[in-house]
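ESCALATION

Customer reports they have been waiting on this structure for their group meeting. Please prioritize. Original submission:
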Amino acid sequence: MSLPNLHSPTTFAAILDPERGGRFTLAPAGKSEVARRYLGRTNVLETTHRTSGGVVRVTEALTLQDGGLLPWVELARRIEGVEGSVPMEWRLEPRFDWGREPARIVRRGGLLLAEGGDLRLTVRSWGAGEAQPEDDALAGSFEIAAGESALLALVAACGQPLHAPSRDHVEARLDATRRVWERWLGMWDYDGPWEEEVARSALALKLLVYAPNGSIAAAPTTSLPEVVGGDKNYDYRYAWVRDSAFTLDALMRLGLPEQVQESFACLLRAVRQTAPDLRPFYDLDGNVPDRKEELPHLDGYRGSRPVRYGNAARTQLQLGSWGDLLETTELYVSEGNVLDEETGEMLASCVDRAAILWEDEDSGMWELDEHRHYTASKIAAWMALDRALRLAGAGQLPGRHVGQWRRERDSLHAWIEERCWSEELGSYCGWAGEQSLDAGVLRAVRMGYLERERLSRTVDTIRGRLAAAPGLVYRTSEHVREEGAFVACSFWVVEALARLGRVDEARETMEQILPYANDLGLFSEEIDPESGELLGNFPQGLSHLALINAAGAIQDAAGRGAGTSATAGAGRG
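Update from on-call: job pushed to the front of the queue and completed.
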C-alpha cells in the first residue's frame, strides 16, 4: 500500500521485504483456517477466520464518500464474532519511503500517531482494544464473542492535519462503499458468457483507475517478479498507452461510458505533451515520467532483486503505441462520440509521425533491449494508418494527408507480407527474417489485419510451439521456460479463435485458463505452468481486460453462429 497515492513510495510493503517493508495486520492470536471472498459484485473484502475456539468475520474496504474519494485515506475493518470466542491481535507497523524511514510514534491531543516525512497515520479502535505505543509501531488486542462487533479504521493524511473520524461515520461509509460498488456495476451492459468472471475483471480494472484524473495504472504493484529469484521486477504503477487503450475498449464493451470518457480524456491530455511522438507510458498525473531508482535495502519478493521505483522503458520507441491510440480513438468514435478539432489535429500529427517511423526498428510491445523489426509493432503501425483513414473518412480527422497515409499503409502491408511471414513456421515471425514466434502477433486478428488464412495458421503454430500448459502460452520463443506463461497472451488466443469463427475451440481454451485465477478471481501478469503459482505484478490490468475481450469475442461470434467467420474491422465485430 502506497500512501497517499497509488504511485507514491510504499508505506506497507511486507510482500517486498518482511522485515523492512511494513504492515498493518489483523488476525486471531492463534492458528486459523482462512477463507476470503468479495461481497457480491463489489470491491469490499470479507475474510472468515475459523479457530479451535470460534469463528470471526472481517469485512474491509478503502472507504468512499458518496462514490468519491475522501480528503484522507481510510481503510475500515469491521470485526464480527460468528461462533464461540476468538482472541484477536492487530499491529500497525508502517515503514515510510520504501522502508527507508522508520515510524515515529507520537501523541497529539488524544491520538497516538505514526509519522514519517509528510505522512501521518493513526488507528481508530472501537471495541478492538486500546492502541498501545511501541518504538515504531502501534498494537492492540481484544477478544470477540459471537454476536459482538468491533471496528478498526486506519486513517492517513499527507501534508495536512489528520482527521479523527467517529465510529458512526466509518460504519456508515463502509456500508455505503458496498452500495457504491453495487451501483457502479449495476449500470453495465453485458449478458454474455462467464458473467461473474467478467464482472470481477471489470471491478479489478476500476480499482486501477487513479481517481483524481482518470488515468489507468497497469498494475498497483512494483517489483513482483516474472521469475522468483530473478531480476525481471518492474514498476507497473504507470499509465501505459497500450494498457489504457485496451482498458477503454473493455469498458466500452461493458457499457460504462462515464469511465471511458474520463480516462480517454486523460490519455489525450498526456499524449498532447509529447505529440506527435508517444511515450510507452505516462505517470498517473499525466506527465512524462523521469524516475528510475533501485532500492538495494529491500530484499524483494522471496529474494527477487532489485526492487524498482520507476521504469527505464519510459524512453523506448514502441511503434505499437500509435496503433493502440488510434484503435481506441476509432472505437470511441464508433460508439457515436465525436472528436473536437484540436484533438483531431493532434492525432493527425501523430499519424503523420507513424507514417515516417514505421520503417524504424523499435523495442516492441515487450519492451526489449534489442531493437528489431518486430512483426507485432509493424502490424500495430499498419492499424494506426488504417484507423486514421477510417477516422478521416468519417470527418473526425483532417484529411489533407489521406493519400500519404493510404500509400504508407499499403506499403507497410506489403513489407509485412514479404518480410515477416515464415512458410517454414507456418506463422508470422516474431521479427522480420527470423524463425521466432511472438504471441503478441495474435492481436492482428482483432485489428482486422487482412490475411486471415495466414493468421489462422499463426494461431495454430503459436498454440503448438508456445504451449506452456493446457490453455496457457508463453509470450515468445525466447521466453519459453525462461519465465511463466503470459496470461494476456493466453486470452488473446481465445479472442483470436473466436474472431476466426472457431468458437468451440475458443470456449474450451477459455475454460482451461479461468481456473488459474486466485481465490478472489484475480490474475497476475504470468502463471507458473507447473505449479500454477501467480507471477509478476498483481492484479494485472492487461490480464483482466484480455479476459473481458475474449469473453466478448465469444459472445459476438456465437451470436453470428459458430460456423461463421468473424468480420474483422471496425468496432468490436
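Sent to customer with the following note: DSSP finds 14 helices and 25 strands in the chain.
Escalation resolved.
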